[in-house]
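Holo prediction — uridine-diphosphate-N-acetylglucosamine.
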Amino acid sequence: MDRIRIGGGNKLHGTIPISGAKNAALPLMIASLLSEDTLTLRNTPRLADVRLLQRILQNHGVDISTDGKRPGQIGQCGETLRLTARTIADTTAPYELVSKMRASFWVLGPLLARCGEAKVSLPGGCAIGTRPVDLHILAMERLGASIAIEAGYVLAKAPKGLVGNRIVFPKVSVGATHAALMAATLAKGDTIIENAAQEPEIGDVAECLVKMGAKIEGIHSPTLKITGVTSLHGADHTVIADRIETGTYAMAVAMTGGDVMLQGARPDTLDTVLDVLADSEADVRRTNDGLRILRNGAGIAPIRVETQPYPGFPTDLQAQLMALMTKAKGTSLIRETIFENRFMHVQELARLGADIQLQGDRAEIRGVEKLTGAPVMATDLRASVSLVIAALAAEGDTTLHRVYHLDRGFDSLEKKLQNCGADIERLAGQ
Ligand code: UD1
């Protein structure tokens, strides 16, 4: 298995092109199941999760072609995927594939809407809490599907098609909102989704669905109104910039010091995060082509933050913020309200010398003068990149094991950081 070695201490200077968002690319790819025509997705990041979803969609009969980048090229252009679901060959999403990535469960809605049936394995993904699918099931039932759970599979049926209805989510869920939205585009009549998640990636998917002929009102708001249509057509869509990748590199620069332009970033999708970074005394500048982040001399000020659904502080940046706070001039408090058990990075950060106390869903981080490099283990996607941030500011070398977690969500991470002067390299596995 590959490892990553990081020599700490270098400030970051330069430009990092921001990739397309993983959390938009995955549901956008799934949306291709809704139409017989070709959906062209530009700026798709090169990630293990995208590759895995390609395999899952191919299993359903989606024909996928890829226009790559030139070798060695990194940048916002990403890859262009052309996905054509002329016919759905198979409405089963098997355990072997779905168990590796939670978002693949989201094929349930489109398959049901288009074919009137779907059999999808209960999901897997990062080990960050129990992550049930009851809200997905609620949405499909509200649209008239009958659901059974047998032998680890969700069996959904709507032989006469889905019918529009009012769906009120008791809790905000990104995945269930995607599923309800996609399914409702082909349901008969009107659907209203209340307490919908407002993450920018949902807006991006909704905008793509509109290009495909869907009728959706209230995009970017907590109430979505969808008027069902009989079929959707092809479209050409560019995946929105990844706000989590943007926030991650911004925190890396805030940690090491330096001056980096995050090119192509969408600061308007990161307001809360940028406020927190400014509170930590990083210098945050919104520009026409992205976000410039600087820290010179001033130390890191401690913060108090709790994770919340968008527009609150994202759980997907909680681990990275905690890494930054390990070197703050005082004590920080971080509360995780979205997922239980999303503190697995804490014991690994402690191996680098961090002083963190956990109590339930709260972490108290007492800033230390210095971190020291050590061997550490990646446990999930965002936790693994928090270790990279800490290692960039630690004295000596850190070796990160299980980097396949990073490859699930960060396109060209070592290259992007190397280009800004970081001492980071991938060591190929024996
Ligand atoms: C998505 C993101 C993930 C992010 C998360 C929260 C993608 C591919 N993944 O995951 O990166 O961390 O949003 O911003 O976009 N829940 C239920 N029942 C359900 C579904 C969810 O109780 O049926 C709970 C979850 O356990 C969690 C909360 O709702 O406590 C939010 O989860 P959700 O927004 O659904 O996360 P995902 O869509 O899986």
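READOUT: The pocket of uridine-diphosphate-N-acetylglucosamine is lined by residues 23, 26, 102-103, 129, 131-136, 171, 173-176, 197, 314-316, 338-339 (CB under 6 Å).
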